[in-house]
Amino acid sequence: MGKTPAKGTSGAKGSSGRGQRDLTVRVKTAKGRKLSSKLWLERQLNDPYVKRAKAEGFRGRAAFKLIELDDRFHFLKPGARVVDLGSAPGGWAQVAVPRVNALGERAGKPVGRVLGLDLQEVDPVPGAEIHVLDFLADDADRTVKDWLGGPADVVMSDMAAASSGHKQTDHLRIIALCEAAAELAFDVLAPGGTFVAKVLAGGAEGELQKRLKQAFEKVENVKPPASRSDSSEKFVVAMGFRGRPADGVPDGGPDGEADGEADGEAGGEAGGV
Ligand SMILES: C[S@@+](CC[C@H](N)C(=O)[O-])C[C@H]1O[C@@H](n2cnc3c(N)ncnc32)[C@H](O)[C@@H]1O
């Protein structure tokens, strides 16, 4: 568990996209094919991150997105207190627990904490404390702070609304979730803390980026290899929390394109992992 997957191994990246359906038919109809070729074809057909998730005991391929983000930015430090927003089915919590030492098993390492929240029940993740909570409920901020009992070092959100199938609607919904997550982060993060959130590339994210650039020393937009290449999903990683930004951003302030990748790709994977 917790190994970094090889970069660029996603099936979506390594194939034409058209090929997956074609290959599925060939495997189903092939007779007398050598086992090695069948296995080879099956491997091409199946998303390697899905297979790795199964093999490594993760609850979904989303776990690898967090692994790749943390291997690059190193925010899940031993002893860190982490809020995991939208944690079902628990893959990100599974990744975070050993990295922050939330089980306290590694002698000499400070013991961290992982607090997960989701609309849905989540099977227990050893070392994590996970609650059913609509993050957008009126008193959610206070509830989270009470459960946390102190400041957080990391607020991370993989939240997504169920896909409507309408790209702009999905974009607006996920930006609204991300803005709400950022507001919570402004309330609960300790100085120097990190905010990580899934967004969909599109027109409404500029204001969010401006606020994050005010509140954090560094803001990066990245698409980890485990994020499907045909999705407009990306992740904003804001590091070095300075404090809640003033309301409103003056004209001529930082624009909406952080260092990132404006992938501009069509996609509707708002609920996808
Ligand atoms: C893509 S899944 C998260 C996957 C998770 N990071 C993992 O690795 O297993 C997105 C989750 O966000 C949750 N979500 C969406 N809106 C929410 C809200 N208002 N409050 C809490 N959770 C929410 C959904 O219920 C869903 O389980």
Oligomer status: single chain
Helix and strand sequence: HHHHHEHEEHEHEHEE
CATH third-level topology of the largest domain: Rossmann fold
User: Which distinct ligands sit in these coordinates?
Assistant: S-adenosylmethionine
Major β-sheet strand ordering:
3-2-1-4-5-7-6
**DSSP E strands, number:** 7
By CATH's scheme, which homologous superfamily of the largest domain applies? Vaccinia Virus protein VP39
Helix content: 25-40%
Proportion of β residues? Answer: 15-25%
List the domain count as a whole number. Answer: 2
- Structural class of the helices, strands and pairings? alpha/beta
Query: How far apart are the first and last residues' alpha carbons, in Å?
Result: 18 Å
Shape: globular
- Overall radius of gyration: 19 Å
Counting DSSP H or I runs of 4 or more residues, the number of helices is 9
Average residue-wise pLDDT: 79
Q: Unreliable runs, pLDDT <50, ≥5 residues?
A: 1-26, 249-273
**The CATH top-level class label of the largest domain:** Alpha Beta
Largest sheet: 7 strands, mixed
The CATH architecture assignment of the largest domain turns out to be: 3-Layer(aba) Sandwich
Please, could you describe this protein's structure?
It is found in: Cytoplasm. Belongs to the class I-like SAM-binding methyltransferase superfamily. RNA methyltransferase RlmE family. Its EC number is 2.1.1.166. The N terminus and C terminus are likely disordered. The chain folds into two domains: 36 residues, no CATH class; 183 residues, Rossmann fold. Helix 2 runs antiparallel to helix 3 and helix 5 runs parallel beside helix 6. By secondary structure, it is of the alpha/beta class. Helix content is 36%, strand content 18%. The two termini are 18 Å apart. The chain is built from nine helices and seven strands; from the N terminus they run H-H-H-H-H-E-H-E-E-H-E-H-E-H-E-E. The protein has a seven-stranded mixed sheet, with helices on both faces. Helix 8 links the parallel strand 4 and strand 5. Bound molecules: S-adenosylmethionine. The site of S-adenosylmethionine has 24 residues, from helix 5, helix 6 and strand 2.
